[in-house]
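Format notes (please read before filing issues)

Several people have asked whether sequences and structure tokens are stored in separate files. They are not. Every record keeps both together, in the order shown below: the sequence lines, then the token lines. Line labels are part of the format and must not be stripped during preprocessing.
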Amino acid sequence: MNCFGENIIQMEKNLSKTNVRSSKELKKAARNALVGNYATMVSAAIIIEIINLSVNSEISLNSFKNLSGGSSPALPGMILICVVSIILTLAISFMLTGMRYMALKIAQRKRPLIEDLFFVFLHKPLTLVLIFFLELLLVILSLVPFFILFFASMIFSSVTGTAVSMLISSIIGIAIYFILAFYFLLKFFPASYIYFEKPDMGAISIMQESARLMRGNKKRALYLMLSFIGINLLGILTFGIALLWINPYILVTWAEFYLDISCKKNIKPDWRPFISYAG
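Then the structure lines:
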């Protein structure tokens, strides 16, 4: 291999190391990208909230009528309410995921559209359902150590007659659960973004690709997650009103993070020194 080729390879390696952006830089990029796009994101959030409140109010009203009818509520009616609730939850989840798609477009310096909220409905939604299911399954499996410790401590406490071991085991089990749950959530964080870009890819392949992208990036993701605690508390103190502006900012920052770990950020390397060197 000639010197020019060796230098090109070295430059690509250096780019992957030196162009990793800090949390501060990711947030700054998100703020810049959101200029001129806040109205669309806030409108999308309001639409989701209106749909959610309207349908939930109707379901709650029908449930109250069934329960206050004086007789036992009809089983078919209760089943119907449960099915509608599940469908609503799934639909809202799809639209919230659609907001993440809008955030990704903003991070890519593309113009988001309100109809992007319904991206999932039109692009193999069963793939996303399977991804949701696999993530939920992993979070549930994270409870296994807790139950093992809990039942073991119950047996120990019944023998010794003290409940201290049960308390300690419960605390340790809960701590292990949160560690494992956060580990899996961080590990498969990019799954929805990969789905946006490759909707024809299978759910398992998306999860595998997600795990690959997060290799060596989990600590960065955790730090970024923790850095939003303060601003989220501020949003809560405003009775959720400020969250209409805070959530788009957070979503676009996470989209910038995805572009960062997938090496798809807008970097234009300067090849001139190597070209002149080759000449």
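For reference, the curators noted about this record: The first helix runs from residue 3 to 18. Residues 66 and 277 are 81 Å apart (CA to CA).
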